[in-house]
Amino acid sequence: MVDEMKSAGWDLDAAAKSIVSDVAYWREDDKCFAFESFVSRVMFDGFHLTNFCPQKESQPEKKNQQRLFVKRFSELKSAKATEFIAHKPRSTFAKFCRDKYLQLIHPQMETSFFGSSSKRSLVNSGEFPDTSFFATFAEMARPVWLLHCLAYSSEPEASIFQVCRGCRFSEVYMESVAEDAPRSSENAPEADPSVAFTVVPGFRIGKTVIRCQVYLSPLQNKVKRG
């Protein structure tokens, strides 16, 4: 998506600030993590719901839940996303792709990328565009959907978490995505960089923790005190 934004002449600095403000980036290229954070936030929204959708829909019965999600996982795990939704346009995964595409790709964004919002209109009507951009999106959506299937086919069920802005870094729950960011200092812990934003959420499965990915910034302590 960043490549399309560059090609369309977007001001990437302004776009990054609109997602996460008051962040001191260690490197100029690190602003890509702000966009990754936005995509993750949209794609994982509703993960805590069994139907992965904030809209009111019938929930699967608890006694059938594990079997249902194992079936969904098995159907998609070896398939290409675009081929799967072409064969099963009414499937729950196809609906997931449709909903997330409409949430993620704003009409003005699509118009600036492709000259019109015809692709969005196609998705809105229940069809899917045969474009490399949508194919890339669908392949990105596929592992998110599979992870949700695994989360609800396991016992105990997995839960999702992210870290609040300004929190101190913890290697137990977090992984830093910024290569240049220092982790901690025993001599001056108050000077440690803190979490600017969560890039990719983490997960808990029983006592097992899959760490979330965070961006650390030295500016956060100043912001929090102000």
TrEMBL record:
Protein name stated in the entry: GIL1/IRKI C-terminal domain-containing protein
PANTHER family according to UniProt: PROTEIN GRAVITROPIC IN THE LIGHT 1
InterPro entries to which the protein is assigned, alphabetical: GIL1-like, GIL1_IRKI_C
GO biological process, one term: negative gravitropism
Lineage per the UniProt record: Eukaryota, Viridiplantae, Streptophyta, Embryophyta, Tracheophyta
GIL1/IRKI C-terminal domain residues: 160-215
One protein family per Pfam: GIL1_IRKI_C
Superkingdom classification of source: Eukaryota
